[in-house]
Amino acid sequence: MPGVDRSFFLSDAVTVAQLLPGMNIVTASEDRTARFMITETEAYLSDGDKACHASRGRTGRTEPMYLEGGHLYMYFVYGMHWMMNVVTGPADYPQAVLIRGAGPFSGPGRVTRGMGIDGSFNREDLTTSERVWIEETGSRPELIAGPRVGIGYAGEPWVSKPWRFIISEELK
DNA sequence: AGCAAGATCGGT
DNA sequence: CCGATCTTGCTG
């Protein structure tokens, strides 16, 4: 199946975060191609969302979030984990979707480790890359929405926004 | 130049 | 519940 095109990524992060579960992340290297179905996402918005890194302005780290939707924003936390985020919306409107679960991996740190995605993928363009892209599967699983994890510092109303999406079946 | 905190994880 | 581990951004 062909990778999804630019237009898919130009919607807002909450919309894209709800469409990604059920779709595949495809990784390709010289000798193999692997597919991981996305099972869990979280949306981080522009427009004041205090949980979004870009809410503190344009810095070296957050600069990739200002790219046009369809690029990757990778960042390193806690001295050991890479977080994979899909940038959404038009350029200079920083929002992204964190991939919290894909394939057999649960938890954003284990997802990147398991798929072999690291800082070298920062700013990668999912619509043109030869090594990673998103693929439609035709499956539209039922989702459960809930508050985002690990962002207590953001305060209300952001901590309570139901912008985490998990495939229902995954919760059993 | 120094420091505090972090969109986590695994072991007690 | 706590420690690992290190980059980033802010302060001085």
How many alpha or pi helices?
3
CATH class: Alpha Beta
Helix percent reads 10-25%
Chain-averaged pLDDT: 97
Q: In what range is the share of β-strand residues?
A: 25-35%
**Total count of domains:** 1
| CATH-defined superfamily | Methylpurine-DNA glycosylase (MPG)
Report the biggest beta sheet as strand number plus sense, adding barrel if it closes: 9 strands, antiparallel
CATH architecture: Roll
- Intertermini distance: 29 Å
- Write the element-wise H/E pattern from the N-terminal end onward: HHEEEEEEHEEE
* Rounded Rg: 15 Å
Oligomeric state of the chains in view: single chain
Shape by Cα distribution: globular
Structural class: mainly beta
Poorly predicted ranges:
none
CATH topology: 3-methyladenine DNA Glycosylase, Chain A
Tally the beta strands. Answer: 9
Walk me through this protein's architecture.
The chain is 11% helix and 31% strand. It is mainly beta and 172 residues long. It has one domain (6-171): Methylpurine-DNA glycosylase (MPG) (3-methyladenine DNA Glycosylase, Chain A, Roll), CATH 3.10.300. Strands 1, 2, 3, 4, 5, 6, 7, 8 and 9 form a nine-stranded antiparallel sheet that branches. Strand 4 and strand 5 form a beta hairpin. The longest helix has 8 residues, at 108-115. It is globular and about 45 Å long. It starts with 5 loop residues before the first helix and ends in a 5-residue tail after the last strand. The model has no long low-confidence stretch (mean pLDDT 97). The structure holds a DNA duplex (12 and 12 nucleotides).
